[in-house]
Amino acid sequence: MLLKNLRDEIAATLARDPAARSGLEVVLCYPGFHALLFYRLAHWLWERGWHLAGRFVSHVGRMLTGIEIHPGAKIGKRLFIDHGMGVVVGETAEIGDDCTLYHGVTLGGTRPSREQGGQKRHPTIGNDVIVGSGAQVLGPIRVGDGARIGAAAVVVKEVPDGATMVGNPARQVGRRSAPGESPPVFEPYGISREIPDPIARALNGLLDEVSTLRARLGEVERAQEPSPGDAGSAAPADPARRRAAEAQP
Q1: Which of 19, 104, 204, 227 is positioned for an S-S bond with 134, CB 3.0–4.6 A?
Q2: pLDDT tens, position by position, 138-191
Q3: Where are the alpha helices (DSSP H) in the chain?
């Protein structure tokens, strides 16, 4: 079973990274694959009650790969950790099958473990999820199947299946796939042309508002202009000109 899982993870890397040319290259040169090797061994020790040994193996893996995966975390099949430096996966985190994590991702907890008595503190990631570089998913929340988390997003609330989340705090801006659609198409870094730029959208809204206000101002100015028939009877607007007109016999 362990060897089959490793073969599946090598195949997943080859399928999702066009830079990978062979399985041997993945085995020798990919820190994400190495981190999973250390994790599988550390998790095996952790599950059998050898917690110190599991933490030590995990620590060695962190020093060699720059990827920190707690041995108590639960990780499914065919996880692809691309680049990987700075990835942190907490003790009670759960990751489903066919997920992709990029560098700098944090699956973190928001509550002190001593106060919670071992309760779940870290997120649960569904199947086929893409988490972009630098994103943080925090707390005992669930990220639905087929969702994608944009780069540098901060997710602190539940994410529906197939949703696309961006920003800090993260908000839904679209859908990667319809609910129940499986599997969604893999998109490097979770990015596609359909994702709207929230800053550009805000600027476009401001420009539209300015255009509307200009049009209304023009209407008000035209309404206040005197008609040609009133030109002779209208008093000069300038006080000095008005006084000069009144002084004339």
Answers
A1: 104
A2: 999 999 999 999 999 999 999 999 888 988 888 888 776 555 555 566 666 666
A3: 2-16, 23-29, 31-47, 51-65, 113-116, 198-224, 239-247
DSSP character string of 214-241: HHHHHHHHHHHSPPGGGTTTSPPSSHHH
Share of the chain above pLDDT 70, in %: 76
Q: What residues contact residue 107 under an 8 Å CB cut-off, 6+ apart?
A: 73, 88, 89, 90, 93, 95, 122, 123, 125, 137
State the residue for tokens 């809204």.
205
The answer as to whether 56 is a domain residue is yes
Domain of 187, in residue numbers? 2-201
- Give the total number of structural domains in the chain: 1
Note the pLDDT tens digit of each residue in 65-114: 999 999 999 999 999 999 989 999 999 999 999 999 999 999 999 876 55
Question: pTM of the full predicted structure?
Answer: 0.71
Query: CA 10 to CA 215: how far, in whole Å?
Result: 61
Tokens of 150: 């944009």
Q: Which two tokens stand for residue 209?
A: 């508002």
C-alpha–C-alpha distance, residues 111 and 138, integer Å: 10
Output b/e per residue, 214-234; b: 16+ Cβ within 10 A.
eeeeeeeeeeeeeeeeeeeee
**59 within some domain:** yes
Q: Kindly state whether residue 48 falls inside one of the protein's structural domains.
A: yes
Cα 202 to the center of its chain, rounded Å:
18
Question: DSSP secondary-structure letter at 85?
Answer: T
In a domain, 220, yes or no: no
